[in-house]
Fold:
Amino acid sequence: VAKPDPILRADGIRRSFGGLTAVDVDHLEVQRGTITALIGPNGAGKSTLFNLLTGFDRVDSGQWTYEGRSLQGLAGHQVARRGMVRTFQLTKALTRMTVMDNMLLAAQGQVGEKMLGGLLRLWTTQEAANRKRAIELLERFKLDTKRDEMAGSLSGGQRKLLEMARALMVQPGMVMLDEPMAGVNPALVQSLLGHITALRDDGMTVLFVEHDMDVIMGISDWIVVLAEGKIIAEGCPDDIRSNTQVIDAYLGA
Ligand code: ADP
Ligand code: MG
Structure:
């Protein structure tokens, strides 16, 4: 077993909405270079935890570090610039932009995805580099022929690929994917999985939320089980698979 080498460490992360405790995580580590799955029933707090760690929601309390540096209090675009990015579902505004403009906007480091006005800068050296990177990524995800089409015209699977490609524009060290297969034609699932394992093979760390147990068991190095905001189990796929208590009580598989 490799020595632990966490790229992300979080302690005492708590977030309530009114009287409901959505996230109450005592300790979480994500090891560098792994694919780690975060699983658990609907409402377990998975998306909220993603939002908190990536600066898109505010913790009530807690500390966390990425590459040994605190991310506490940073906004989403600042976290992204440090190298930890999450994917976003394409918003209505983004579907009305071309695939290429989506990529160039993402290069701004996830600066408020809601405030689009004025962000597409005029031609600069940086923009030239961004365009080059965008084209490489679109080729990698087989979206290069779609670059001048509206993002809204893409199929469900192509949208998921664009969401991943956008996240990679900032050259992250860690990518967080919230249900990357949701709504994707089963025929495309294998190809998406290939892209996710390729991220790890390129040296990135991946943390993803997924429901499909075959997918989870197939590509994860480590699995963290969340229920009612708390981590109730974690382990390698074989450990989790044989943890019948976890499976029966929380996953219904
Ligand atoms: P998961 O992604 O695991 O399905 P979520 O993180 O979306 O779970 O939600 C965890 C809990 O927090 C749920 O009970 C949900 O209703 C609640 N919740 C999430 N976001 C908000 C919000 N912005 N306001 C109020 N309640 C929320
Ligand atoms: Mg969710």
